Design the sequence.
């Protein structure tokens, strides 16, 4: 029986009442501001819309329940309302890649109408990997003029320059410097218009998804392709995550074991290609923290377009990303403090030993420079052994992978927090105050744009604190990932992160702009671990506030 609903001011009749609202919006109505980040698990919030003014997750909402109801996407908001929220997000640095922000804006629009709005609580329905949540809460304050946008412990509502007086070209340069790939900056990004791979696919393209046997299943629609491939909904295992590498034998003052950690980017791997053409870039409006640099989907889209003679749209689901995407190489280490000697094992990964040694050296050099190196009987030393571990692929392309682990191990030989310089980049220092607030100071050379620099640094703080305290995946002894949902990743929620206090020191003009967010990531991880009494395993499972 057909279902009639009203979407952004137009009446739509849907013949297939078994389909989801997300499928109708993206695949039938071509509304690309509604994003698919969990495929569909109802866990990331990227597809949030308003149904009769109430925020709903479209990917798990059957259209049969929406007969006669009003559905609003960010494209259907009053233009003045949409502009106000987009400007607020741009001014606060609350949107980097922009994939999650359309759904978040709609959630916050609904939250703003409540008698006592609580944006951090509202964000429990969402995942944002880029911004560290705090700028989003601050954007709520900018858009509404509400005290709810004041970050507890930070004192005042954020006051940042309006987009009209910012140099958005300089802002994009800073974003590219920190993210490693070109990135747009501006209000349109917050509305989901940053240019994502799947958004530009031709309407008549075949859709291809993994068939579960190493090949691809193609069909006329995404729903048909997934149905034919027998896609199984991902689950979160109840099995406790084991640490994949044993600590080296020895008598140690400090030990550390890390687990499997997923980069957690929200735009799942996707591409499309026409026969004889170039496939759409996988990276979209951001670098996915290095997680897509070796993604196979673009080349596979090219091959399928050539073999079928048709445009082909190819997508990984969230389950595909978690099962097959690269992870941080897990480590296990022991530290002999009097001898200033660290012995570590790391999952065998190209270039990981060099990266870890470089991070360790950076930590030691920084401590020596300010007289903060722990006294001992010998020169500081990191002894590394690469070991084979059954599990998903690992890569040093992920944010500061290997290098940050080296800094963290070197930080065990510090007497206090010190400023660490990232390779060919800026320096960062992180301390944690008595109230739990995380304070970060950076020297990033020429700032270019304070809003973007601040946003990237706060995002790096969130990612590091989450890595140390909450993130991991369970992987079986045979190497198969068992946790296949967005919530399985363990990413810290907005309510979990204490206030972040950020400051930037003007760098020498001749230095030019310097990337610094990887240094922020490394020193924050070191500071959070120290604040958790250097617990022997990550995640520490200890609260941050």
Sequence:
């Amino acid at each position: 029986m057909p279902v009639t609903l009203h979407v952004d001011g137009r009446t739509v009749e849907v013949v297939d009442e078994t389909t989801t609202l997300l499928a109708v919006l993206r695949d039938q109505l071509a509304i690309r501001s509604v994003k698919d980040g969990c495929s569909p698990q109802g866990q990331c919030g990227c597809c949030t819309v308003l149904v009769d003014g109430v925020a709903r997750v479209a990917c798990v909402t059957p259209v049969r329940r929406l007969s006669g109801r009003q559905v609003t996407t960010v494209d259907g908001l009053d233009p003045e309302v949409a502009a106000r929220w987009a400007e607020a997000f741009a001014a606060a640095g609350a949107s980097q890649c922009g994939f999650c922000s359309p759904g978040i804006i709609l959630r916050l629009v609904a939250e703003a109408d409540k008698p006592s709005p609580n944006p951090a609580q509202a964000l429990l329905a969402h995942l944002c990997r880029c911004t560290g949540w705090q700028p989003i809460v601050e954007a709520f304050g900018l858009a509404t003029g509400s005290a709810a946008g004041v970050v507890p412990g930070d004192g005042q509502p954020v006051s940042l320059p309006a987009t009209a007086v910012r140099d958005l070209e300089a802002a994009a340069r800073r974003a590219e410097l920190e993210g490693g790939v070109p990135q747009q900056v501006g209000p349109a990004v917050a509305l989901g218009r940053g240019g994502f791979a799947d958004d530009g696919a031709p309407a008549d393209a075949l859709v291809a998804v993994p068939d579960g046997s190493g090949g691809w299943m193609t069909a006329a629609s995404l729903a048909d392709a997934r149905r034919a491939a027998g896609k199984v909904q991902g689950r979160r295992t109840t099995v406790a995550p084991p640490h994949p590498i044993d600590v080296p034998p020895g008598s140690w003052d400090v030990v550390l074991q890390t687990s499997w950690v997923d980069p957690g980017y929200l735009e799942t791997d996707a591409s499309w290609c026409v026969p004889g053409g170039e496939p759409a870039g996988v990276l979209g409006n951001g670098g996915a923290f290095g997680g897509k640099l070796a993604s196979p989907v673009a080349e596979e889209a090219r091959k399928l377009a050539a073999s079928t003679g048709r445009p082909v749209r190819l997508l990984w689901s969230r389950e595909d990303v978690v099962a097959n995407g690269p992870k941080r190489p897990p480590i296990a280490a022991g530290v002999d403090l009097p001898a200033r000697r660290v012995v570590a094992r790391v999952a065998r990964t190209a270039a990981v030993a060099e990266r870890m040694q470089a991070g360790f050296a950076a930590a030691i050099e920084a401590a020596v420079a300010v007289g903060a190196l722990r006294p001992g009987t010998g020169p500081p030393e990191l002894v590394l052994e690469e070991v084979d571990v059954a599990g998903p692929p690992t890569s040093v392309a992920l944010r500061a992978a290997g290098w940050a682990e080296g800094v963290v191990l070197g930080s065990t030989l510090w007497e206090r927090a010190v400023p660490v310089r990232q390779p060919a980049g800026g320096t960062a220092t992180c301390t944690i105050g008595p109230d739990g607030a995380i304070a970060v100071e950076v020297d990033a050379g020429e700032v270019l744009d304070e809003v973007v620099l601040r946003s990237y640094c706060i995002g790096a703080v969130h990612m590091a604190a989450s890595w140390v305290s909450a993130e991991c995946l369970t992987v079986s002894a045979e190497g198969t990932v068992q946790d296949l949902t967005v919530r399985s990743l363990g990413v810290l929620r907005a309510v979990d992160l204490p206030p972040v206090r950020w400051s930037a020191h003007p760098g020498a003009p001749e230095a030019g702009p310097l990337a610094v967010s990887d240094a922020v990531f490394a020193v924050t991880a070191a500071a959070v671990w120290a604040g958790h009494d250097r617990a022997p395993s990550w995640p520490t499972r200890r609260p941050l506030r």
